[in-house]
Design a protein that fits this description.
Oligomer: heterodimer
Shape of chain B: elongated
Number of strands of chain A: 11
Distance between the termini of chain B: 29 Å
Largest interface: A-B, 54 and 58 residues
Number of helices of chain B: 12
Distance between the termini of chain A: 30 Å
Number of helices of chain A: 14
Shape of chain A: elongated
Order of helices and strands of chain A: HHEEHEEEHHEHEEEHEHEHHHHHH
Structural class of chain B: alpha+beta
Radius of gyration of chain B: 29 Å
Chain lengths: 403, 403
Amino acid sequence: MKFLGYILRNARRNPVRSLLTIASISVCGFLAMILLSLFSTNNEVRATLVPYNRVITMSAQGFTQPVPIALAREIPAIDDRSGIHAIVHRESDDKPLVSPFSWYGGKFRGESATFFAQFGIDPDTLFDIYPELTIAPDQLKAFKERPDGTVIGRKLAEDKKLQVGDAFELKGEIYPFDMNLTVVGIFDGPEKRDLRTCYFNWNFLNEGLKRDFQGQGANNAGTVLMRCKSDPLVARLCVAVDEDTKSSDRATKTQTEDAFVSQFSEMIKDLQTYINMVGLAVAFSLLVICGVAMAMSMRERTSEVAVLRAIGFQKGQILFMVLAEAVLIAGIGGFIGTFGTMFLFKFWDISPYTMGFFPFFYIPTAVAVTGFLVSVVVGLLSGLVPALRAASLPVIDGLRKVV
Amino acid sequence: MAMVPLKYTMRNLSVRWPTTLLTVLVSAIVVACSCVLFGLVDGLMYSQAVSGDPLTLLVMRKGADNETSSNFSIQTAQDLATLKGIARGPELRADQDRQGFPAIQNQPLIAGELLNIPVMARSDGSRVNLTIRGVVPASPFLRPNFVIEEGRYINPGTRECMIPRSLVGRFPGTRLGQQFRVSDKEVYNVVGIFSAGSSVAESEVWTGREDLAANTNNDRSVSTVRIRAEDNTALESLTDSITGDTRFGLLPKRENVYYQSQNTTAVFLTVIGTVIAVLLTIGALFAAANTMFAAVKSRTREIGTMRALGFSRTAILLSFLLEAVVITAIGGALGALISLLFSNWSFGISDFSSFSERMIQLRFGALPLAVALGMTLAMGIFGGLFPAIRAVRLDVVKALREL
């Protein structure tokens, strides 16, 4: 510790070089944080979904094929009939917590591309299925009563400057029916939930399709969402539902919400491989960058190191001082690059610029900590060669050497 | 104006070869990382471009914006075949005849195809939606350069399928002679391995339409119809008659226009690629600047001497800039070569329009080369500029006195 002053002075001796090295590490750290978070965020969010025991039934033919609405009634019947009793029933009226969950995919108010999600759901059960989403009781009541009502997430309301009572027009892309909705409520929720979603009454869409378009695209639930009691029952329910529909022409795939969400990152698995490769390449480049900077510093200090040795400093002490300097510089750069980036995205919400790919974006703490540790290790490794060279140079040669 | 001899610049690089080499290494890694991703974007755009034939009409249900969400009755598809101006099928080549291609000589080149996109587990267990296309005799003739590489063409109605080269081994049961199992009810014998000129078809498993229809209980509809027009005039009149007939409710698009509109994935990858390339360039630029600052510092006396000999400030500035550009250019060239190692990499990326597996062959055309060149110049010029400015601002007398 008594050498701290000397180490700090050394690090500041060539300020331009140290600053450039720190800047280089910070920028690379920034990049690595963004890239690694693309997937880690997804994993963290998935972990927070597990305790809610929600289950989603989709078509075995993939997301693009809807399941019929009849299934939303049949699934609770299957659950009862098979004696599994996995689905939670509401205490007040014994209603099973099941809802259609239908992707509308429309465009908002003449936008050429709309990047927030819109789902047709059952207003009566949605907020019981999603207890982590909060909404004022009078707004929820209005949502349940008003057929053309919609509730939107807080961030969506902020983005579009919408308030309760505002008109909310959606133009259909998948469906021929355009919806003129009215915002009746704004919901809030934890940080790791999509607060840029719009939920509307599934019946409103379905009635419109039946009334104006001879029922084209009507009576489909998209997917069916339900809330279950506990884990072992969930697994049994998934099997029971899929077994029941297997021999029909509308085979289903039933899975936990967590497994459902994970499909999206599994799909782009090769991209994940590439990003991990870039991460490794960045770490290796930093190793070289820091190593070169440190080697240059030590070369300029050859005679000084020899003097230190001559006045009695041990090899080990020299080694320690050089390594400490390398770790210090890499650590500062790493700290700025990792925790700085985490802090930045806490206050700067970039989601509106991501074309809907990331309704919320943050750097998970685990990713930042890992990144910081990597930078420290990089500093240590990069200092190794220059440190060993400095420590093992014969004193006489060092004193004689003119740099 | 006397320029500093090129030899001087080159000699300097070799004198301090360890730092030069390491800086070259960093720029090589950085360029390689970006080149691979832009090679992917290039491959994707190439694949979209070759998939779209300007004389082929892709007919979809009105309102469907991609093949996946389209479907209409098989009767309508058959009515389309009676339209005038449809090109006729070619004579089979000897090898095609031997491989069991369907004979469609003088038959209209029109293909009503059925799509099914089940969720499938890859060989490593991760899940993705895979496109299975039920094809008709005209289908291979409506694709660019459709070739059977191994085995033979399918016999429709006998539960056989063909696998594109890029999917072989990626999913269980996709090798020649194996059984490709979609579900318990839906099993196909793999009889052929095909390629199709890098087009979108290379991401699809092909089986007979009647086989797919029987397996998915969907024998009344098709997803899309492709029609090859005789010439441009015929194409326009076909478009008019299909659009004009309101009974159809169909919208024909030129195939090339359709594939240009399916660019969400390309945009997504370009954005990620740009972020990576820009940040890595900045990171490496700082490293290059470090190397050059050290070069300037260790040559202070030389610079003074050159100034005293009469070399102008501009000449010295250019000499140092050139040195930096040469370092990064060697690195850039090396990086581009490294990225070529990945040219056989078949990359799976989910198509964000259909949410299905899309195989892309990396392609190193103009785009990745332009990226490599741009990064190289940016690193060299911006990395070398400030050290070079410092070099020319040295006071001649002081510089000469420097040890």
